[in-house]
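Now read the record:
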Amino acid sequence: MQSPALSAEVTLVTSFNDADPMGIVYHGNYFRFFEEARRVLMEKLQYGYREMKASGYTWPVIDAQIKYIRAIPFNYEIRVIATLVEWEDRLRVNYLIQDAETGERMSKAHTVQVAVGVDDDEMRLASPRVFTDKVEALIAQA
């Protein structure tokens, strides 16, 4: 079972510019919602984008998968939960979008990121200690 320390959530209201002409959130915009929840999760780990770069690594997404369960209309309140499930060799984050009021599942997804050295542009086969130490410290605090 995952530690609650390894999850973060955001509540958002979808906007008109998120939607297609039919008033349904365009499928590509889901990734913006995931990104916001992942950003909050990384800040919780004290390893946000500025800290990543300062530590000498970028973390490009190398894989993303999504399942659309229920269409989301614009002007709709959703809860987006990001959970870190792998961190030793790569960074895998699972996502869940729910109706903020009922908790009904609307979408689920995951992304995979890997560490790439800023100085040499080389992909690392294991996550750097600067990151794994932060994850382990957060788990220990929980």
Q: What stands out?
A: The radius of gyration is 16 Å. Residues 4-141 form a domain with the Thiol Ester Dehydrase; Chain A fold (CATH 3.10.129.10). Residues 30-44 form the longest helix (15 residues). Helices lie at 30-44, 49-54, 129-141.
